[in-house]
């Protein structure tokens, strides 16, 4: 028997169907060990010696692998092809060798494949290799750096900024981007400018007269720039001069322009486009992509639908390009196939061009053909990936661009109108790229040019008007634009973007409002502290430089411990010096940056008239009277900012979208028990659980909460269904009449059937252990897994039995329900 080890059961099931009976495929359930979660796990005094521990959920699969490998003829490590996949294989091999589980003479090989299809897997089996030490060392260096930063910075934050939970090497830089953008918006001084537009009646050769809109581009020999007209008085003078003049069309120029299709998706561009088009968070996008990659049951066969989804490459294999071009010709016709295949090159300096872009494994497997085998979100994501790949090999879209110049008879004024007409749709037949909204729309959009007009004809002014404009600040980041900026700066890598955003939400450093990221006061305080005392380590250039060094480690050009030594020498000094900084000094820096944006009225105590100062508390910074203890007045910063500084919309009861099923508008509201979604017509309400913290409270969340309880899958041993729900005390798994609490380490929106089985098993063990500790005369064990359900003598059922342990200290008993509604 040959033993093949992969990360997930879904991937294991797919490979089992491709390989013969002489192979046994098992899953490690991801990483099997991690650095010990405490200071000193990276021992800086002993040349960065690392201390590992086995991840709890990996114990059972690890024992199974250890047992099977003892009788195996060969061990084949088939984890993913990126850095994390290489690290999982390395950890497994290290542990098995430490435990002397691998017999002498047993071969060990490493294989990797870009897609989980029979052809790709069999080709990989015929091309085994050794573990890539460069990738492993890059993983070790990255993990060590993150540990050193997190476990040295976070304790300082706890002391200096109560309520601020953590800082990280990359997350803190992402937070700085969000807070810096917010500061730019708050400090922005709008500039006034004016534009002059005209509407003209023009004669046509055959048809009736038409109207043409145009903008003034030159006046009295001067070309008009954006800020040429700065006030209303100037605009009105120009307008008055124009009203007494006559005009005619002096030139009509035509040219053809092309629009080229975008490259197939990388991890970053996929997360950005899905955020814009489908509204999924990056973590949700990656969860769905993982399912499509690992395989979907289609007609009794596990089929990997897309290639590997963690990549920064836009390359596509020649075979896939040929198949795509053939499909386009057969379905859309030869005119949609370019003479030469479109080849794309990444703009990123450190892109791993050896990988492929994200694409369908089989282009002939259309979205409609797989619709009945996947859920709606998986279908929508696959359709987007399929459309992007097909469009990337289609002909350019062609436009006829027409520019009309209208000159006054005195030749003092020139108006211009430009319009584009689509003459060949090309790739637009399949796909149109989305973009973030522009922050400063000043009227430069295309204008409709009527057909049949000719040079020399009169243009009679119907209306000439002056429009006032003000410059706008750059918009707040969306998830998509933040990921784009991180990528452009060279900060983070494909596998990290979703995690970075999730941490910012979970720490309540950032919240999402109408798909825009707004830094919380707590997040601002952290960012200010780090900019003043760890400026180098939240510098964009420095962080990007660290990423480049890690890439050099992965390619073998640099030794990983050398990178750690260079980093630790200066970082240790910064940590030591910051420990001596008085809290008053820290508060002073935060006041300097935050209080200028607070209204002067809010800075005066309404009770005693004294000055209000900034203080730090469990929930972040707040305003407190400096006359304390005589006056104990305090109030939050939120709402105290000059000019508001807060966005309107969903947070104040705005509509987040329409129900995909019945078209009802869904509003986000806040009641006495917290935020909730309300369906306007039916007045259906769904509470938003506390576990979601600062995550985007958007349409995607509303629809997910509405779907609860949702079927996760069937138990692999019993075949009984497993449901996910959320009750008064958090998320739970319902299985076979029992309920099992979902621990904090699980991402509740991304729980897989394997996770559910693991939660059930852990709950049963905990219940058994509790029953044994109670003894035969103790409480009777109930069927609620980790949720407190034990029947105590003299109590009425589960609700009374699950009274709070606080009662033993004389505190009032708290009644707990075993099951709560999803509301």
UniProtKB/TrEMBL annotation:
Pfam families: Topoisom_bac, Toprim, Toprim_C_rpt, Zn_ribbon_Top1. Residues 166-171 are annotated as: Interaction with DNA. It catalyses: ATP-independent breakage of single-stranded DNA, followed by passage and rejoining. Residues 796-808 have a biased composition (Low complexity). SUPFAM superfamilies: Prokaryotic type I DNA topoisomerase, Zinc beta-ribbon. Residues 1-116 form the Toprim domain. The record marks 31, 142, 146, 158, 310, 507 as: Interaction with DNA. Monomer. Belongs to the type IA topoisomerase family. This is DNA topoisomerase 1. It comes from Candidatus Hydrogenosomobacter endosymbioticus. The gene is topA.
